[in-house]
Amino acid sequence: MKKYIIIVPIFLILLGVIIFYLVRWNEIKATTDKSATIKELSYELEIQNQKHKLLLSRVTLEVNYDAIIASGRSFRSALEKYTTILSRSNDEVLKKLAAKIVTKSKRLEYVYEDIKSDTALIKNSKMWLSKSYKKYLKDIKTSKEITPELMRYIFNIVNANNIYQLEELEPLDIDSKIFNQDKLRVHLNLLYAKRKSLIELNTELIENDIYIDLDEVTSYVNDVIEELKKETSSIVKALLMSTLFLIIFGLIVYVKEVLTRQEADNLKKELQQFVDALNESAVVSKSDTQGLITFVNDKFCEISGYSREELIGQGHNIIRHPDMPAELFKELWKTIRNKKIFKATIKNCKKSGEAYYVDSVIVPMLDVNNEIVEYLAVRYEVTELINSRDEALMAEKAKDEFLSNMSHELRTPLNAINGFSSLLKRQIKDEKQSKYIEHILESSSQLIGLINDILDLSKLQSGKFILDYHRFEPYSNIYSLVERFSPNIETASLNLVLDLDDSLKIVANGDWLRISQIITNLLSNAIKFTPAGGEVRLSANHNDDNLRIIVSDNGLGISKEVQEKIFMPFEQADSSTTRKFGGTGLGLSIVSNLLKQMDAQIKLESEDGNGSTFELNIPIKEYENKGESKSEKVASIQESKSILNGHILVAEDNITNQLLIGVLLDELGLTYKMANDGVEAVEMFGKEEYDLVLMDENMPKLSGVLAMNKIRSLYKTDVPIVSLTANVMSGDKEKFLRAGMDGYLAKPIDNNELYEVLQSFLSHKE
User: Fold this and answer.
1) Which of 701, 699, 700 is nearest to 724 (CA)?
2) Candidate from 5-9, 61-65, 118-122 with smallest mean pLDDT
3) Could you tell me how far CA 283 lies from the centroid of its own chain?
4) Angle, vertex CA 208, rays to CA 205 and CA 214, nearest 5
5) Cis upstream peptide for 748 (omega within 30°)
6) In the chain, what are the domain boundaries?
7) What is the CATH architecture assignment of 7-219?
8) Is there a contact between 611 and 552 (Cβ–Cβ < 8 Å)?
C-alpha cells in the first residue's frame, strides 16, 4: 500500500478539481440561463415600453384611453415580474438597477394617472367648445361679440390633434359680453392649464423613462454572459485537461499496476521456485519469540525423523545433541535477540538417536516497527562433509604420525652413523681411512637432507611451517655458504664467479637457515646441470629492504614447456634427469613454497641448451638490536667448552645410540647410567640421585613423556628432564616443552647443541 500514498492524493486532487469545475459549470449555466431570461424580459419590456410611450405620445381628443390603460396594466405586470427577477439576483449591480427601475416605474404610474386625468378634462372642454362652435356659427351674424377671430380660435382648439398644437395657441382675451362667456373662459383656461400640465408630464415621462435602465441591464447582462462564456470556455479546457491528465495518470497507474503485478507474479514464481529449491535442499523452520517451533518443512521432518505434529509447539531442544556445549546456545540467543544473524555448525540428534550435523543460519524477522516477530532458521546437512573432514584430519594425523615415525626411525640409525663417523674422523689419522669416513659423513648428510626435504614439503603443504627470524650477516654468511661448494666445483671442473655487493655488509633480520636452503638448492642444481668447463655465477646485493640474489649458469637450460612444471613436487625436466643426475624433484618445489612464506619472488629465465638464470627478491630488513649472532655464539661455545660436572640418567632403547651418547658424555667428563626403556628409567631414577635425565620419546613399554610424568609424580623431584628424540616435526619441540620437559635435543645429535643444553643445567668442574 505504500506505493499508493502519493498516487491517492494526486488522484483526489484531480477529482476535486474536476468536481469543482463541474459545480462551477453548473452555476455558470444557471446564471447564464437567468441572465438570458433577464435579457429576454428586458427586450420584451423595452418593446412594451416603446408601445406605451407611442400611445401616450399620440394623445388627442379622440385617443383610446382603454388601450392606454390596458397597455399600462400589461407593462406594469411585466415590469413587476422583471424587477422581482432582478431583485432576487445575487448580483449587486442588477439589484441596484432593479431598485432604480422600481422607483421610476412607481413615479410613472402617477404620471400616467395625471396624463389620463388631464387628457379627459381637455377632451370634455374640446367637446363643449365644439358644441359652442356650432352654436356660434348660427349667432355669428346677429351677435356682435362672436367675432371671426374668436371662431377661428375655437376652430383651431377643436381641430387640435395633440397637446403640442394646443400649446401653440396663445390665450385669447374674451369680451365679457359674450354669451356664456364665463363657461367659455373656464374651458379655455382649463385647456390652457392642462395643456401646460401635459407638457410637463410628458417631460417627466421622458425623465422617468426606464428604457435607458433596461438598456443598461441588457448591456450589463450581455457583459456577464460574455464573461461567463469565457469562464465556461476556460472551465471546459480545464475539465478536458484535468480529465485527460486523469485518464493518462490512470492509464499510467493501471499500466504500472499491471507491470507491477506481472513483476510480482514473476517474483512470486521465482520466489516459489526458490522456496521449492530451498525446501528440497535445506532444512527450514520458524519459531516464535520464545523459541517454540511454528513451522517446519518436509526436509526437517525427513532428516530429524520427527513428524510435523511432534515438532510444532516444541523447542529446538528436541533435536539438540548432548555433545553440544550450552555456551553455544547462550551465544545463539544473545546474537539473535540483538537482531543479528547467527551462524554455526551444530550437531543435532535424530529421533532414532543418530547424530547429524547442520550448518545453521538463524535470522530474526522484524516487523515495520523493527521489532522481532519470529525467527527463521535455514540449515544444510553437512554430516558427510564433517565426516570427510574428520577423516581428512585423521588421515593428516596419520600422515604426520607416519612422517614422524619415519623421521624417528631414519634419524635414529643416522644419529649413530653421524656420531661414530665424527668420532672416528677425529681419532683416525690414516688419510685413506679418513677419506672413507668423509664419504660416509657426506652420504649420511645427503640422506638427512632428503629426509629434511620431505618433512619441509609436508610442513609447507599443511600450513604448519613457521619461519624463524633472527639476526644474520648476509655478506659473510653467503660467502661462507658458497665456499662450501668449492670441492664440488673442483670435482665438476667448473668456474665459480662470486659477486657480492658491499650493500650486503649489514646485520639483517631473517630466517637465514631457509635462505641458505634456497641458495644451496639453486647452486646445487646449477653445478649439477652445468657440463665440465662451464661457469656458475652468484651475485647478490641489498637495496630498499630487499635482498636480491641471482644464480646463473651456462648449462643445459630448461625449455619453456617445463619451466612451470619444475616448481611442482616430484617433478623434473624429464624422466631421465633422476637416472642421470639423481635427486627427488623436491628442491625447487620447496624453494617456491619457502619464497611464498617469505612474501618473496622468484624469476626464471632459461632456454633449452643455453643455461638458466634464477633471480630472487626477498624482503629483508636490517636488524635493529646489535646482539651476538648465532655463528658468534657457536664459536663462543667451541672456545669456552670445558669439562662439566654431573651424573646423568640416559633413557635410550637403541644400543648403538647408547654407545654414541656414552662416548659424547665421556668426552665431557660426565658420569651416566643407561636405561633401555621408559619403565627401567622410572625404576633406576628411584635408586640413585641424578643431576639430569636425557629422555628418548619412542621407547617400548613406556614413552618418554609418560616416563617423565611417573618420575615427577612418584619422586616429587625437580631434576631437569630433557627430551632427546628423533621427533623433529613442526610443533614437536613445543609439544614436549608443554608436556613438562625442561629442554629439547634433536637427533642426529649436534655436539654444540648437546653441550649448550648440558651446560644450562649442570655445573663446571673446578
Assistant:
1) 699
2) 61-65
3) 28
4) 120
5) yes
6) 7-219, 278-381, 474-622, 638-764
7) Up-down Bundle (1.20)
8) yes
Looking at 3.30.565.10, 1.10.10.10, 3.40.50.300, 3.40.50.1970, the CATH number of the domain 474-622 comes to 3.30.565.10
DSSP per-residue codes, 66-112:
HHHHHHHHHHHHHHHHHHHHHHHSS-HHHHHHHHHHHHHHHHHHHHH
Instruction: Kindly tell me if the per-residue pLDDT of 522 is higher than 90.
Output: no
Looking at residue 406, its pLDDT comes to 61
User: What φ, ψ does residue 349 adopt, rounded to 5°?
Assistant: -130, 125
Rg (CA), the chain: 68
The C-alpha cell at 753 is: 647443541
The letter for the amino acid at 119 is T
pLDDT tens per residue across span 614-633: 998 999 888 765 444 444 44
Question: What is the reported pLDDT for 636?
Answer: 45
Q: What count of other Cβ atoms lies within 10 Å of the Cβ of residue 392?
A: 10
The pLDDT tens digits for 175-219 are 544 445 567 667 777 777 776 676 776 676 666 666 666 667 667
Integer Cα distance of 42 and 216 in angstroms: 10
Which triple of cell numbers denotes residue 219? 448591456
Q: What are the φ/ψ torsions at residue 552 (nearest 5 degrees)?
A: -135, 160
Distance CA 640, CA 634 (A): 10
Helix H or strand E segment including 487: helix 486-491
Q: Is the CB of residue 365 less than 8 Å from the CB of residue 336?
A: no
pLDDT band at 583 (very low <50, low <70, confident <90, very high): very low
Cα of 576 vs its chain's centroid, Å: 60
Q: What pLDDT does 571 receive?
A: 43
For residue 443, what is its C-alpha cell?
652420504
| 693 has a pLDDT exceeding 90 | yes
- Concatenating the DSSP letter of every residue in 108-171 gives HHHHHHHHHHHHHHHHHHHHHHHHHHHHHHHHTTT-SS--HHHHHHHHHHHT--SHHHHHHSPP
Whole-number pLDDT of residue 673: 93
Mean pLDDT for the stretch of residues 564-570: 59
Closest CA to 316 of 340, 339, 342: 342
d(CA 115, CA 133): 26
Residues in the chain: 766
Q: CA–CA separation, 11 vs 499, rounded Å? A: 89
Strand (E) or helix (H) holding 49: helix 4-57
Q: Which CATH code for domain 638-764?
A: 3.40.50.2300
75's CB contacts (< 8 A; 6+ apart) are 45, 48, 49, 52
Q: Retrieve residue 686's grid coordinates.
A: 628411584
- Please give the Cα distance from 185 to 173 (Å, whole number): 9
Give the containing element (helix H, strand E) for 294. Answer: strand 293-296
For the ranges 12-26, 512-526, 685-699, 711-725, the lowest mean pLDDT is seen at: 12-26
- Phi and psi for 383 in degrees, rounded to 5? -60, -50
Distance in angstroms (rounded) separating the CA atoms of residues 619 and 415: 36
Give the pLDDT confidence of 715-729 residue by residue, as tens digits. Answer: 999 899 999 887 766
- Outline where 356-382 has alpha helix (H): none
**Superfamily for 278-381?**
PAS domain (3.30.450.20)
Q: What is the pTM of this model?
A: 0.36
DSSP helix/strand/coil, 69: helix
Place of cell 673446578: 766
pLDDT at residue 585 in the model: 43
C-alpha grid cell, residue 444 = 649420511
Give residue 758's Cα distance to chain centre. 65
- φ, ψ of residue 372 in degrees (nearest 5): -70, 130
Percent of the chain with pLDDT over 90: 14
